[in-house]
C-alpha cells in the first residue's frame, strides 16, 4: 500500500490580477504560474514531470473541462477539509490551464457573489498581492538536498492565499502530518485503511467453511463503511 502526504506549494512570482470590466461591472481574473516541475522549489521539493503531467491531464478531463475546477480562499485548516473541496470557501473558478515547458500557467475568474469571492475581489481592487498555492497528495522521497515528489492526486490546482508558511518549518511539518491512501477514487486516512486490513487478516485466519460467509460479509461491511465515512 502506497501512503501519501498532503503537499501545498506557494507561488506569488508573476501572479497578476486583471480587471476585465464588462458593461461597467468588475470582472476580476488572477493568472500566473501555479505549478512548476523538474526544479527545486521554495519548499525544497522537486516534482517529477511524468506523474504530474498524468495528474494534470486527469484533472483537466474531470474538472476543468466540466467547469468544476475551483480555488478556495486560503487553505482549509481542518485536516479532513484539506483533502477535499469545500464549497463554502470557493473564491474563483479556473478557466484555463496551459503548459509552458515545465511551468503550468493558470487563469482563474473570481466567483462574484459568493462570500469568499467577494472578499477576494475587494482585496484585488485594493491592490493586495496574493498568490497561487496548489494542494495535492503525493509520494515523497527524501534525497540528499531535496524531496522528490510524485504527484498522485490533485485536490486543487491552486487556492488563493496571502502568506505561505515558512519553507523550512513547512517542509518539516508536512513530513510529520497524516498519511493518506488514494484508492478507487476515494481519499482515506492511511491508519484507518491499515486497521481494516489488519482486522481482516485476523478474521480470515480463523475462517472455516462454516463461518466463511459471515466473515466475508463482515469484512466487506467494515471496508465500505470506512469508504463512505471519508465522503
What does this structure look like?
- The chain has two domains: 179 residues, no CATH class; 42 residues.
- The protein is 30% helix and 35% strand.
- The chain has a five-stranded antiparallel sheet with strand order 2-3-7-6-5. A four-stranded mixed sheet has the order 1-8-9-4, covered by helices on one side. Strands 10-11 form a two-stranded antiparallel ribbon.
Q: Rg to the nearest angstrom?
A: 20 Å
Overall number of structural domains: 2
Q: How far apart are the first and last residues' alpha carbons, in Å?
A: 20 Å
* Content of β-strand: 25-35%
* Total beta strand runs: 11
Reported for the largest beta sheet, the result is: 5 strands, antiparallel
**Sheet/helix structural class:** alpha+beta
Helical stretch tally: 5
Report the order of strands and helices.
Answer: EEEEHEEEHEEHEEHH
Helix content: 25-40%
Question: What's the SSE blueprint?
Answer:
Blueprint: E1 5-11, E2 16-19, E3 28-36, E4 45-47, H1 49-62, E5 70-72, E6 90-100, E7 103-110, H2 115-125, E8 131-142, E9 147-161, H3 167-176, E10 180-183, E11 186-189, H4 190-205, H5 212-229
Parallel strand pairs: 4-9
Antiparallel strand pairs: 1-8, 2-3, 3-7, 5-6, 6-7, 8-9, 10-11
Helix pairs in contact: 4-5
Please supply descriptive tags for the structure shown above.
single chain, alpha+beta, five-stranded antiparallel beta sheet, four-stranded mixed beta sheet
